[in-house]
Design a protein that fits this description.
About 85% of the residues lie in helices and about 0% in strands. The protein has 15 helices and no strands.
């Protein structure tokens, strides 16, 4: 591959994909035409059903065998889980208590929630493959993160935000019925429905993504009705982008440093870097809708939406650089 075509390849990956464009367009639609009254109540019920569907599909898709096999490399998974559910929440908690001139107070809860979300699956595995890393370990690490996240994310969020009243006691019932029960049902039924899920993967993926868009539309509608854009200005969004960029840089450095400290191979290092630095919008948006009151869900999701785009752009460049190091010696 020529230098020009290689540059074009990773520059192409910097562009937002269509789904991310749709996510921000949905937030924009909610800003211009928020749902209200009886229609909001009807969509609220539809959102609860959508959340249940999303987590049922998470349970049906996740392979327990991949997670069990991956536990053989327990040090790698401890690093990924330690960063995802330990370092990330601590860093986000630190960002949330910075002076108001640095961290907008209205977005502090969303930053803390961002830190508690599990890793992504698809992009973590995809970037690990592009970078020529340990794909099997990435599958296991990302799957384990999402399996644990169904329980750990709500617990962490409640522990860090409950004292401030941002997570109500009613949220625990929502967690049980909207998140845990559908996820467990998907895992139980996976034995029988896995072939059907695999055969209908494209259709189910579209339905899954459509459910996330519905969650975001309803969440931002509630936030707009409550005056979210009177609370969050353009300068707040700029500061949030900077905070998310700094957060990602810190976590990338930590995962790289931990991999070197543990003496991991280059392939394992790649899996740790990509699995440990990600946060899942697919899991985070429904969780936010279940955990936060309607008026607060949009604010809770906003940091995640921005971080998600930043992480994809940064990791696209990093994956290409890892891959280039393998290609270069072969071309000599």
């Amino acid at each position: 591959m020529s230098r020009g075509s290689a540059r074009a390849s990773w520059l192409g990956r910097l562009k937002p994909d269509l789904y991310l464009v749709l996510i921000f367009a949905t937030a924009g639609l909610a800003t211009l035409a928020p749902v209200r009254g009886a229609a909001a109540e009807g969509l609220g019920l539809a959102t609860k059903l959508a959340i249940a569907f999303v987590f049922f599909m998470h349970g049906a898709r996740l392979s327990r065998e991949a997670v069990v096999q991956g536990l053989i490399h327990w040090r790698l998974h401890l690093v990924v889980l330690g960063v995802t559910f330990g370092l990330f929440p601590l860093l986000c908690l630190g960002l949330s208590i910075l002076p108001d001139g640095v961290t907008p107070p209205v977005l502090a809860g969303g930053l803390i929630f961002l830190g508690c979300i599990p890793s992504t699956i698809q992009s973590s595995i995809g970037f690990t493959a592009i970078a020529r890393g340990n794909v099997a370990a990435a599958v296991a690490a990302a799957s384990a993160s999402n399996l644990l996240g169904v329980v750990v994310t709500p617990a962490l969020t409640a522990a860090l935000l409950h004292a401030e009243g941002q997570v109500s006691s009613a949220a625990f019932q929502a967690i049980a019925f909207q998140l845990l029960a559908p996820f467990a049902a998907g895992q139980v039924l996976r034995r029988w429905i896995a072939p059907w899920v695999a055969a209908k993967a494209r259709m189910l993926s579209l339905a899954d993504r459509g459910s996330i868009l519905l969650v975001i539309y309803v969440a931002f509608s509630g936030a707009v009705v409550e005056g979210v854009w009177r609370q969050v200005g353009a300068d707040d969004l700029v500061r949030l982008v900077v905070l998310c960029t700094v957060l990602l840089a810190a976590v990338l450095a930590a995962t790289w440093g931990a991999s070197r400290a543990f003496g991991f191979s280059r392939e394992d290092e790649i899996a740790v870097v990509f699995c440990g630095s990600k946060k899942s919008l697919a899991s985070g948006a429904p969780m936010a809708a279940a955990l936060f009151p309607p008026a607060g869900t949009g604010l809770a999701i906003l940091p995640l939406m921005l971080f998600h785009q930043i992480q994809l752009m940064a990791c696209a460049v990093i994956a290409q650089r890892y891959a280039a190091r393998d290609i270069a010696p072969e071309s000599r």
